[in-house]
User: Fold these one by one.
Assistant:
Number 1:
Amino acid sequence: MYHVTPILYFPPVETASPEGILAFGGDLSTQRLLLAYKSGIFPWFEADEPILWWSPNPRMVLFLDELKVSKSMRNILKKEVFQVTFNQNFKAVIANCQKIKRDGQNGTWITNEMIEAYNKLHELGIAKSVEVWQDQKLVGGLYGIDLGHVFCGESMFSLVSNASKVAFISLVNQLKTENYQLLDCQVYNEHLESLGCREINRGDFIKIIKRT
């Protein structure tokens, strides 16, 4: 496995392990994170681990026209139970994503180091958030990296039922209006599949990321 050096470089994604780990070490500088996302790579590690860089095969994505919205979800959206904003409180969104308890996880992979790094990306207009409000309280949201034609989703949270789904659907509708090609969801889970996401070959994903 490649040990990341101070040089801004990642090995070819084809050299990743079967689990999808490409490299370890390095830092979370703005330049390295940008290179990673533009190369189809993302960091994912626990607080007591070195930085791990991933490029899984297959890759979980959503082609925007394949979004699935259930009848009950359409009713919730129609009732306007929630209010949705974009990039109004990035710091609160990522902080909630860090704190939320998730099934099968003892801790969080969103370390304080990652929060600092992604807040810097947000200040540069690269990391963006969706906020979901109810009675003027932040109850859900998501954040990710905006590459201009692909949005790389990182994490979402929900303090009340359906809030994160509302964030996800609202993001997809916004990306559609701006002619994005897809939403990167990184790795498979059933919740994402229920929303229309599917796995594609890493090579096909890289072609879309790099516009080749």
Number 2:
Amino acid sequence: MRFDFGCRMQFSSSVDVPVILMLRPRSGYRQWIVQETYALEPFTLVTEYTDGYGNLCQRLIVPAGEFQLQVTGQAETLGLWELDQTAPWIAIEALPDSILQFVLPSRYCESDQVYDWASEITANLEPGYAQAEAIRQWIHDNIQYQYGTSDASTSALNVIQSRQGVCRDFAHLGIALCRSLNIPARMVVGYLHGLKPMDQHAWFEAYLGHRWCTFDATQTEHSEDRIVIAYGRDAADVALVTQFGPLQLNEMQVWIEAM
């Protein structure tokens, strides 16, 4: 399926501020970026690098005053993706080296402290897809989606205690619970077609049957109508904007439309 997508941000600052942006989806896993534009007003020099997770990162200095950036494009996605609900758990010794980091605790995903919850949620289930899906369903049923209930410091442990949060928090909790069962899990940010209200979105993937499988605890039904911007261990690795100084985001618009 082909989608039009885009993101527009307007900033203001009293001084020049160095930033790292992560706003360009890249072709690869289940998606192909057909075309893309990246506009800055006023224009400023941008350099780009690829981080350790394969994400495209843009470095620039946002000049003092008003600043706007807009990323637009078209992407072809795989669309319908056959769910393998029998995908097995992969033993640690059989995991590829590059996957091992996604079994370890990270800043927002304290997998070493949530095993008891994970064990209870997945009791009597076969190791593998069934466990990850049970975790997704439990979060969907037991954690209240509520804006303003978390902030940039909120972790998976905070969420399971408060029982509320937003998509980032749902993803962190899913990741932590999976990792506590030695299921590799990573955070994903990007666009989800049909999301209401529309915004940049976060979900998690679990490594099962030697491939990454999508799990989104904010949604009732499974959907692959997504465009991925970035992957990482948790939100610290996939921040769309990382600023090194006072920078105010005044407006943000996000869209994704089927063609």
Number 3:
Amino acid sequence: MSRITAVVPTFNPDSTLIDRLDALAAQVDAVIVVDDGSPAHSGALLAEVEAHGYEVLRSSSNRGIAAALNAGTELALARGARYVLTMDQDSTIPDDYVAACLGAFEIASPETRLGVVCSDRINGMPSIPEAWTAEGLGLVREAIQSGFLISAECLRECGLFDEELFIDCVDTEFCLRINMLGYRIAVGPGTDIRHSLGERVPLRPCGIQLRRGGRAASYEYHGPVRRYFIARNNVDLYLRFATVKPRWVLSAIKREFSPTVTTIVSGPHGVRQLVATLVGATHGLIRKRGPIPPALRAILTPRRGAQSGASPSPANPPQ
């Protein structure tokens, strides 16, 4: 029986994956890598991962990060894991991360109903707890899933990740759902993970380069296909939680408005970004879920050789 099992979804991983797995394995009892239909050229690296002693589950197609997380989590639970640690392929945790998260579970009283412990900081940026437990644990409403230490009890009672979302907002939906069912999310005291949040490109609204502090300003960029999922799944969640969590819906709309407008007016591929946003929002309204329709993907995918200003990242696969 493995007390703590790490589940690591991959898509087109690079050679740094093995070093991250080695660092992760030192803190958990088992590691399950779930490859989400990577291209054939990733086969050699995945074979090397297996040669290092890690279990690799391979999907024949790209089913999305939620499905990959669920495949590994189901196997971990079937083998008796008491906790599941979910990690993105490009995230790195410090040496004492799991111990700190486990410590939070150990001091939490049954009345706290702690279901998830997440990182206190992401790339040094602190979380802002909305409340504190009697034991002194900071509570948050939502967090990114990379670095989640989830109790088996929470997973069995609340269910796994929503595969219909495919990618984007998967962690948000999970957090909101378990909260509605009475479980809480606490930050691991003093924890800090390194995580790739996306490409950064020049901030050039309407072609005018903005500057901050004497330097060219930039912003976090996601391609049109990812923008489709972000728009679609956010609208989907607004509708799901409008009556039960109206304050969250309002805050989420406010949070997403600025980056959406920035992406459209600053480019790259501003027209495709606009189409992705409009179609995504429409699909969210009519509750269309799952993978992006192939015809729409073709429209939103920039032609090879077109100027983009950003390149695909293993952390943000073209799913």
